[in-house]
């Protein structure tokens, strides 16, 4: 059986990767739009109406406008920030909790998670559900991400001849604690307050490491590293795209770009029993964006959800 898919904004970083995934499949027909009509709302709505699923890879305002103009029963996946915490949209992280996959399968509106949020939620939500972290525990997190997460402008700045020399070093940003992924990080974990969040861009194209440090004395109940790891193993049992790692790499480093090009997310439990460090590693363009959109598309179409991804 063949399905029609319209990718609105396929020339952006996320859209290009989605188009690459879909173009390799014989069960997907990609619906294209003329270049001179790609911002024509009426034409876009016609394409959405024709498609079995449409994936919006647009800025927030354009995604909101397009989704509002589309038929209410048209299946849409939005990769922007616009709808991730909005009523009427299902959060597109199938591994979030029991029943989330079914919600995605039955919804016409699915909001694709943000990359930083994906890594944070995968680490925190199982521990909240298990009572190891209380909802009012003051969390913090930092991430190291490849520069592709910043879109075309950041990619161009890093890859141009004669680039600024400081781009060889990591750069911390969102210094005002207003990063656009924070609202979904709060809502989808159930924590009471936003985490202190420090994202850092590195001089590599793709990949991401998210770290959540904890302190034993502030946990809701005593838990060793082994206890935490068992919670993850139970929560993610049977998940094909989540791996709970038994040990840190032999060299003692968790490098950010190891999973570039992959749709797998790895979870490490390290540190020590007094000061646990929770770490997730994945591709910010894979499980953190385009791969997640294809996973959600597969679920919405009733296809095996990892098809074309592993």
Keywords:
Dihydrodipicolinate Reductase, domain 2, seven-stranded mixed sheet, 310 residues, alpha/beta, Rossmann fold, six-stranded parallel sheet, single chain, 19% strand
Topology:
Elements: E1 3-8, H1 13-23, E2 28-31, H2 41-50, E3 53-56, H3 60-69, E4 76-78, E5 90-91, H4 100-105, E6 109-111, H5 115-129, E7 140-145, H6 151-159, E8 171-172, H7 182-189, E9 196-201, E10 208-213, H8 225-235, E11 242-244, E12 265-271, E13 276-282, H9 286-301
Parallel strand pairs: 1-2, 1-3, 3-4, 4-6, 5-6, 7-9, 11-12
Antiparallel strand pairs: 7-10, 8-9, 10-13, 12-13
Helix pairs in contact: 1-9, 5-7
Task: Characterise the protein shown here.
With 310 residues, the chain is of the alpha/beta class. The chain folds into 2 domains: 3-113 and 289-301, NAD(P)-binding Rossmann-like Domain (Rossmann fold, 3-Layer(aba) Sandwich), CATH 3.40.50; 115-284, 2-Layer Sandwich (Dihydrodipicolinate Reductase, domain 2). It is 31% helix and 19% strand. It has 9 helices and 13 strands. Strands 8-9-7-10-13-12-11 form a 7-stranded mixed sheet. Strands 2-1-3-4-6-5 form a 6-stranded parallel sheet, with helices on both faces. Helix 5 runs parallel beside helix 7. The radius of gyration is 19 Å and the shape is globular. 44% of the residues are buried. The model has no long low-confidence stretch (mean pLDDT 95).
